[in-house]
Specification:
By secondary structure, the protein is an all-alpha fold. Helix content is about 70%, strand content about 0%.
Length: about 260
Amino acid sequence: MFGQLKWWEKSTFHTVLLVSVSVWAVPLGFLLYYSWKGEGIGNYVAVLRLELFTKFLQNSAIVSFFVVTLLVLLVALASFAFSKMEFPGRDLLFYLALFGLMIPPSAMLVPLFQTIKAFGWINTYMSLIGPEIALMSSFAMLITRNFFDEIPNELFEAARIDGAGTFKQFAHIIVPLGKPILTTAGIIVFLHSWNEYLMPLAFISDKTMLTITMAPSHFIDEYTANYNKVFAAMVLMSIPIILLYLFGQKYLQRGLTSGAIK
């Protein structure tokens, strides 16, 4: 399709790739180096022996599980409605839903705090689950609806002729054919939820309810900081993300590229 690349084109392409990889590889190298500096594996042992480290992992796992499960379900239903159902104001409502992409989370921190406080969710899992679903739903809905638009309408017409209602169309057409994009959305949402730092910092004051992103701060005092252990904690909290990407990258790539060619 693109023909044979000339040597200078290949060299330019490889140079750009090398620079792009270096942007991420160099900081990662420094992170691993300083996490091992000083006490070596002792830095990691100190993090694992942290009194609340297991609790932090548990809290992050619970929050991420419910965020992914609820958001994927809600986004699948909403995207199905916006893509395949006709109702007044459909496009307007969709664009209003996408308006959330234009507002940075930090700008909504104060109204979010007031809302969570009014619901009595401070120091609860809902203070992390609710805002995360609200903030990530716009992006997840955007990629999911675009994917659903590529599913032929003839499938739904044939299903209606056979007597299938809306729910059966969703369960037997959207869910099976939408697995790549729903998996992609789930992975992206999990990564964002697991790495979330601002929400626990703002909404959680009870140490037993903090998430794994708060673990590095336990090695930082008012006047001193053990940065080697801070870096070790950052490496440990990144392991689930790395494993998820290694096992889920084919689904992630398939979901993001599906629908690119009609």
